[in-house]
Structures are given as C-alpha cells and as structure tokens.
Amino acid sequence: MAANPIIVTSGNSNAVSKLITALIVSVAGGLAVWQLKKFLSNSESKQINEPEVQLASRIRTAVNPSGVSWLINTDTTDEYSLYQIAKEINEQKNFDKVAKSYQRQFSETLESRLRTEFDPNEYNKFFSIINTGTELIDQPSEGKSADNKAADGSWDSLKKEDTDVRQAKAIRGFILLKDVASLYVQAKLMYKNKNASKVYQAYSALYKSQITKDIAGIANFDFKKYNNALLTGK
After folding, report:
1. Crossing angle for the helix pair 79-92 and 51-63, to the nearest 10 degrees
2. Nearest CA to 202 among 154, 170, 157?
3. pTM of the full predicted structure?
4. How far is CA 227 from the centre of its chain?
5. Residue ranges per structural domain of the chain
6. Residues contacting residue 113 through CB under 8 Å, at least 6 positions apart
7. Which of 22, 86, 218, 225 is least surrounded by Cβ atoms within 10 Å, i.e. has the fewest?
8. What is the C-alpha separation between 63 and 113, in angstroms, rounded?
9. In terms of C-beta density within 10 A (0-12 exposed, 13-18 middle, 19 or more buried), how is residue 38 classed?
10. Residue 9: what are its φ and ψ, rounded to 5°?
11. d(Cα 83, Cα 143) in Å, to the nearest integer?
12. What is the full DSSP assignment across 112-139?
C-alpha cells in the first residue's frame, strides 16, 4: 500500500522558512562572536608586550602584592618599586599611555589608586620623578634637627636654576593631570622658595606658554586659593 504523500501547506512552509532563517542567523552570530573573541585574544596578546601595559601591571603588583583584588586596600605598598617605575615612565615619556592601560586593565584610575596608597608628600614625589626624573626636594623645615635636615638633602647645594626648571616641569605634569591639590602645594612651595618668577620664566621657556593660561583650562580651578598660597604660603 502506497504511503500517503506529505502535503506542505503555506502555513507549514512559512514555519520551515522561519526555522531555517533562525538557524542561519544563529550560526552567523556564533561565527561573529568567535571571530570577535579571536580578534580580542590576538589584540591582547600583542598588547601585553607593550611597555605601558607592563608598567601598568607592575604598578598594580606594587600596590596589590597579594594579587587578590579585594585585599588591595589592606596590602602593603612597595613605594621603592613605584619610584623606580616612575623613573622608567620619565625615560619613556609615556605616562598617559600607562594611565590608560592601568584603567583598562583594573577598572580604576591610576590617580585615584596612587592617592589611596601615598600620603601627599609621597604622591608629589612620585609625579616629580615622572616629570623630572628626580625628586623635587623641599627646603628643610624650621625646627628639624641637624640630622633630619641632612636627611632631607642638601638644599643649599642645589643650583637654583635647576630647582626652578624641575619645579616648572612638575607643575606642567600636574596641569596635564588636572591635579588641583598638587598645584596648590606647588604654589606654597614657590612662596617658601621665593622663586615664583623664576619658575614662571622656566615654564614659559620650556613650554612656550604661561602657567596661568594653562591652569585656566582646568575646570573649577580656584585662582583665589592658588594666588593666596602663592602670596602667603597658606
């Protein structure tokens, strides 16, 4: 006895067509995802050898030596390694790339992490090394013992013009970072050193611009507070 023929109605035909379309879309989507993952994997493998990626990773290791992300705020901080990294960043002139790589890898800004790890003096020292290759040495404060003053470094042995240039470079770095707090600190330092005009001249010679003009580009910068620090040290 002959088998009954399968009759395909228009309704069944539409259902089959939709099923086939769905399968094609699914396969195409899967291929697209696979290609994207392959591309990202290749991209990451290429980037891992980039200097800024390695420097960002080393910074993370210095602030999170346990390697456990949720312990980062209780881990010890390897300040020595951070200062060595700052010297390398100064040599390579790639701080912006390092900062972007750090944020991309660890989902937080490098500036916020360093502010958490460092006290204000250490923070300024780190960026002074990045901008000048050396620590910007402050004048020994009054009331310190002779031993402590010696530990601060021999301020009198430094050439004034060298100090002015280094401070101008540090200010430039803080302007680029839009680091308002550190700019106020630099204003106080210029008051203490009585070298504001020389620093301003050095800045102009180095960058063909003016400190006040460049600072004006920082949103909500308090010029009254800055000028007060510059004129009174407060």
Report:
1. 160
2. 170
3. 0.46
4. 27
5. 47-134, 159-234
6. 59, 63, 102, 106
7. 22
8. 8
9. exposed
10. -85, 170
11. 28
12. HHHHHHS-HHHHHHHHHHHHHSS--PPP
CATH class of residue range 47-134? mainly alpha
Quick one: tokens of 105?
């890898």
Encoding tokens for residue 102? 């750090």
For 31, the token pair is: 């291929």
- Per residue of the chain (234 residues), give pLDDT as tens: 555 555 545 555 566 566 666 666 665 555 566 665 555 545 444 566 788 899 999 999 998 888 888 888 888 888 888 988 998 888 888 888 899 999 999 999 998 898 888 888 888 888 888 877 766 444 334 443 443 333 333 334 333 446 788 888 888 888 888 888 888 888 888 888 888 888 888 888 888 888 888 888 888 888 888 888 888 888
Q: How far is CA 130 from CA 82, 98, 161, 195, 224, in A?
A: 11, 12, 19, 22, 28
Which residue from 54, 55, 48, 117 is spatially nearest to 86, judged by alpha carbons?
55
Q: What is the token pair recorded at 41?
A: 């994997």
